[in-house]
Fold:
Amino acid sequence: MTDRFALHPDNRWFALVVLCVGFLMIVLDSTIVNVALPSIQTDLELSSGGLAWVINAYLIAFGGLLLLAGRVGDLIGRRQVFLAGLALFTFASLLCGLAMEPWQLIAARFLQGVGGALSSAVILGMIVTMFPAGREQAKAIAVFSFVGSAGASLGLLLGGVLTQLLSWHWIFIVNVPIGVAAFVLASRLLAREKGLGLRAGADVPGAVLVTGALMLGVYTIVDAESWALGAVAVALLAAFVVRQATAERPLLRLGLLKSRDVAGANVVQMVAVAGMLGMSFLAVLYLQRVLGYDAFATGVSFLPISLAIGVLSLGFSARLIMRFGARIVLLPALAAMAAGLWMLGQAGVDGQYWVDVLPALLLMGVGAGLVIPALMTLAMSGVAPEDSGFASGLVNTTQQVGGAFGIAILASVAANETGGATDPAALVAGYSAAFELAAGLAVAALVLAAVVLRRRPAVVAEAEESRVAVTA
Structure:
């Protein structure tokens, strides 16, 4: 049986801050590289294909190992896995910053993905264990959601500043002191816990099958020409499901996925994040290649979306979820995201930031500030403590796979629409088609959420909020 985090109530919030700092470092690194790619390509003399692997090497390791990392956390202790991942990520960041050859950077990025998967896969599980239920859990998940959503936008700003003022090496080196400080504080603040033990679920064949399936699946997404490997990934995933249904000590208890809220929230998140992160990638290109923004100006342009996410995530999402229920909050938030994405699709060659871009970013910030906390609340609802690590890893996996899928599909749509032309009119035609497809993905997520997720009457939410207030 897994011990709970036996922390003094005051220390739990300090521990949450440390967990979020570690998570922020990982989230920043997923986008901080984007604005530095031109500098990296010039400095290391990378081809376009080689440059793509600076991103892909990280995505394949990160997305492929999340589920396994989450389950390992359940078995040997989430604290131990978090610290190991944080240490590896920090060390790999130093290697990235010191890289002088393309292969060195790509190999170090793969190691970063491994470390990021180990640490981020177990964070949400630790949070729901430290804050078991009620208003405190809603607030804690809101803080975690804010870090995940706003951190991606802040990465663009920080990447632009460091690249322009110093060099691209510093977007990685800056992780080192942050990682060391987070490791020391986490070692002191996170209570030691006893995992279930390897005998409780050390399904090695299942681990090999699911990790291979996810790595090949992510590779297929980021390299659209590898559909044969995609078929292999599907076959491995099917073999994993069969294995889990028959294994004496399965890696995944399939009953966990019978919950409509758990399974539905993960599917909705995958679709919604595909539109959101695909937008972020293409909006950067629109600002730089059409409107002529430099790296710093591009980063600053995304500040409003970070602020909107912060205000909604930290100020209102927990109260709204407790008052109305996560599903009721989720539906209009997805509609706001869809509207913002559609507005971006209408921006033209002579578009203006204040008229065409800013309102769209604010709508998407409002949407994301409510969507992510609501989905995470639903995805972790009713999950037993011994499965919280796996559930946490599943949430992160669907988020990463959705993001990789969105970037690959939307970038492909934009490229096909332009037909290889690089003039502003052709670029805008491609970006507009991709933004409108992203809006369609948000609408699809809205429909799925309305159909699949369970209703919860407001009176139930009010009763739960009153009960929490009385017992607090």
The chain has two domains: 9-202+249-471, 203-248.
